[in-house]
TrEMBL record:
Locations listed in the record: Membrane
Reaction(s) the record says it catalyses: myo-inositol(out) + H(+)(out) = myo-inositol(in) + H(+)(in)
UniProt keyword Cytoplasm present: no
Regions crossing the membrane: 54-72, 98-116, 128-147, 153-173, 185-204, 216-238, 306-329, 341-363, 370-391, 397-423, 466-485
Principal subcellular localization: membrane
Biased composition (Polar residues): 630-641
PROSITE patterns cross-referenced by the UniProt entry: MFS, SUGAR_TRANSPORT_2
Region (Disordered): 1-29, 501-535, 588-699
Keyword NADP: no
Domain Major facilitator superfamily (MFS) profile: 59-489
Residue ranges, compositional bias (Gly residues): 670-681
Name of this protein: Major facilitator superfamily (MFS) profile domain-containing protein
Amino acid sequence: MSGSVRSGHIPPHSRRESTDSYASSVGSNRALRPPKIEMAATSPLSKIGIKGDGLMLFITCFASIGVFLFGYDQGVMSGIITGPHFRAYFREPTSYEIGTMVAILEIGALCTSLACGTLADIFGRKKVLFWGAILFSIGGAIQTFTTGFTSMVIGRVIAGFGVGTLSMIVPTYQSEISPAENRGMLACIEFTGNIAGYAASVWIDYFCSYINSDLSWRLPLSIQVLIGLTLAFGSLLLPESPRWLLDHDQDEEGMRVLADLHGGGNPREPRARLEYREIKENVLTLRKEPDRSYTAMFRRYRCRTWIACSSQMFAQLNGINVISYYAPLVFESAGWLGRDALLMTGINGIIYILSTVPTWFLVDTWGRRPILLSGSVLMAISLALCGYFLYLDAPFTAKAVVGCVIVFNAAFGFSWGPIPWLLPSEIMPLAFRAKGASLSTATNWAFNFIIGEGTPILQEKIKWRLYPMHAFFCTCSFILVFFMYPETMGVPLEEMDQLFGDEPSAVPQGDDSDDEDDEEAARPVRPIRTSISSHPRFMNPEERAARAAAARVAAEDRARAESAGLFGIKRLIGRLLGANASEPDRRLYQSGFGPSSIPLEDITSSNAARHRKKDGTKKGGKRKGKTPSGIETSRPTTDLPTNDIPAETDYADEETQFKLGDSDDDEGEGSGAKGQTGPGVNGRDDSDEDDLEWESGRR
């Protein structure tokens, strides 16, 4: 796909040469070894048996309450401002007063979304989540018992403080606990909570409109308090982010959380231990970066920062809050009056929720880019038609506008609703993740305020022309995504540097000056992940050229498979069969096209071309060969380095299982690999020999 950053599957033989070079480059760094703990059970949930996938699902659903509050507060005012009792209590507020009461929430959210990036790095994700819910509850209480315009504005600002905090911290927290293969789906489930909050507020407004007193608008506002307190006290049950714990050297606690999330509570589970090593390596690498300020983030990660902010900017400029905040006014302008306008808004909200469900399954199979591009097209068309029908002012205008609004909301809920909340938290490195999410969220609230404040005025001044204006912004967002946004589907958080062409600092060396007689310290540390070992930082020019050539061939293989129509079929087979498949089907699933088999280290053809240009190498001749997927292709004659493979490394075929010894518990015990000699063979420990027995394409 033109303009995208695409990842191809690197054949196993192209990875082998990097194992020795990486092991020698990191030496005996003991800081990467998981701590020895007996039991996990770090949170109240794990103590009662909620672990593994169950714990992950519980965290996702419960954290979604945070974005539910965000959606509820956005939608609740849309039905209240048209109610007769509300308008009478506030003495027929002007369009300026209505705009201020609605949009002032964004000012409070803007302030805290900027500040909470630093606070989340200092105090942790869990504590910031708790205090965000408390602030929201206080603001909701003030709105409920308001005595006039001023107190309503104060309550909205304080609620905005809570909303800004939650809208920043919840996506960050979610991304840091989610596995790469399901990160997109879990984030989209979370966003569905946002739309459910919006739809719930609309229906509550509709049913409360039958109350013939001020309770018709005070009751919907009071529900904010109940939901906020539920989130606040429920957050005390959640575990802290393991990445934040490891970044603050709380290694044992971090290992316990990882064991609960990925090991079913077993701290010896290979996947949990491997996850620990990857995160800890990334933490130690990022500590080479002395400056963690916003300025440093702009300077070093300019492209990622622009993507994070622009995605949220266009999520607002594309016109969603013209509908979310003022849907009843939009329907009234089309001819639906009173409760009928609220009813149409409620029906629209239900369709809005349903539109977010397909993204759960497509975001980790189809990818982020295609979803955003298709959403931009549908939104632009529906907004342009909405303006056209309002311009005609024909008898069918009312029904036509409802249809256009429903299509627009469905397109937004499918695309530009969830993805901009997912991208910032997954593309930024750990050292800047909270700050990147903070800045992107602040961008969202800044444009949220502009749209919320300006929409009532523009609806009076330019009328139907407002909708083609937002259709133009949808077109601009299509162009931006097409040429600038990379595809991040299936990419582990710790490996985003390679996708964007950023080279991390070398992995810090361990200080083993006091361990000269320690047999464990004398053994080389296993490679943490072949993607790091094959990074250009650890390669000579010849190795980099070979790596780039392999990446180019893999990209060609992937393009051939796509053109043959096999891409979606193989993904479907992988999802349906997975580990229980027969051998041929499993080999098909692991040949580079499964949803969890595209690691980030498989850099794209564009990156490969850049490395070739940088190294001054040229493409060699070609010979015929076959890819792991069985598709005949041409391979460059440049031979890959044939370094000796460590004695402890047992490479299977393209499924590539790693069995690298590293005793963490029984130092000096074990017999080593049968019939093999070499460094690190003696002292193998059965508890750790499976730490890297994971397919290299598991993500």
